[in-house]
Design brief:
Length: 248
């Protein structure tokens, strides 16, 4: 993969960088992307019908078991070179924000520090009524388990369709997009809002936009640089081109 010299130089000299990642960045860790065909037991369900408050209301057991299946997948997944390269780039940029739509926690596991999880984190469980985090050792038996405090069903701490994003996360993400010199959009189909609006907010403030994706997205035509390849190859290449001494 050829990284354009101007891109490498712009990244090397950047003071502030914001990155938005989607499930494509975790694909090479074995975590299915959201719109890929569901594998195994769940191929007959449309995730859009499962990741909603209505689905949980209608069939809490089914939704809980679907997330247990996804949590198991995520539990077996390890960060890939894309996650690792992003954590290394963060160390070399004074003001770096990693905004992710992914709920797998792999960025933090790879060492990224300033991470904004727009859609929550599947490894965390909350009470469906009070929203408080409940540790597994305090689950009250059941499928789904219940809250030890109020007895309501527990649910994964992820944003479902139709739900609001965590306010602190989306406002910090928007602030980072408006302040950055470089905005990198990696592994996302750029179709789910408000996350998909972030690169345009960055553009409005004069940032250079880089897209990393093997396929075209609605952002591709507007990006200043497009690295059309897998994140696991393109992001380490970009990092090595910008920071030659980086041992990736
Ligand atoms: P999608 O499944 O919509 O898009 C995945 C993107 O990653 C596609 O554009 C693929 O071309 C690209 N891709 C696949 N493999 C890749 C690789 N190895 N390297 C780089 N890119 C690759 O997933 P998201 O864009 O993350 O929201 O979906 C956004 C949101 O839609 C998700 O967070 C989820 C879903 O509804 C909620 O659950 C609220």
């Amino acid at each position: 993969m050829e990284v354009p010299v101007p891109l490498a130089e712009t990244l090397r000299n950047a003071r502030s960088v914001a990155v938005l990642t989607g499930s494509g960045v975790s694909a090479e860790s074995g975590v299915p992307t959201f719109r890929d065909a569901q594998t195994g037991l769940w191929e007959r369900y449309d995730p859009m019908d499962l990741a909603t408050p209505e689905a949980f209301e209608r069939d809490p057991k089914l939704v809980w078991e679907w997330y247990e299946w996804r949590r198991k997948l995520v539990g077996e997944a390890k960060p890939n070179p894309a996650h690792e390269a992003l954590a290394e780039i963060e160390k070399r940029i004074p003001d770096f924000t990693l905004i992710t739509q992914n709920v797998d926690g792999l960025h933090r596991e790879a060492g990224s520090r300033n991470v904004r999880e727009l859609h929550g984190n599947i490894r965390r469980t909350i009470c469906s009524k009070e929203g408080i985090v409940v540790m597994p050792e305090n689950f009250v038996e059941g499928t789904p388990p219940r809250c030890p405090k109020c007895g309501s069903f527990l649910r994964p701490d992820v944003v479902w369709f139709g739900e609001a994003l965590p306010a602190a996360e989306i406002s910090a993400a928007s602030e980072a997009a408006r302040a950055c010199e470089i905005f990198i959009s990696a592994g996302t189909s750029s179709v789910v809002y408000p996350a998909a609006s972030l690169p345009y907010e960055a553009m409005e403030n004069g940032a250079s936009v880089i897209e990393v994706n093997p396929d075209e997205t609605p952002l591709t035509a507007r990006a200043d640089f497009v690295l059309s390849g897998n994140a696991g190859d393109a992001i380490p290449e970009m990092a090595r081109a910008a920071f030659p001494g980086m041992g990736l």
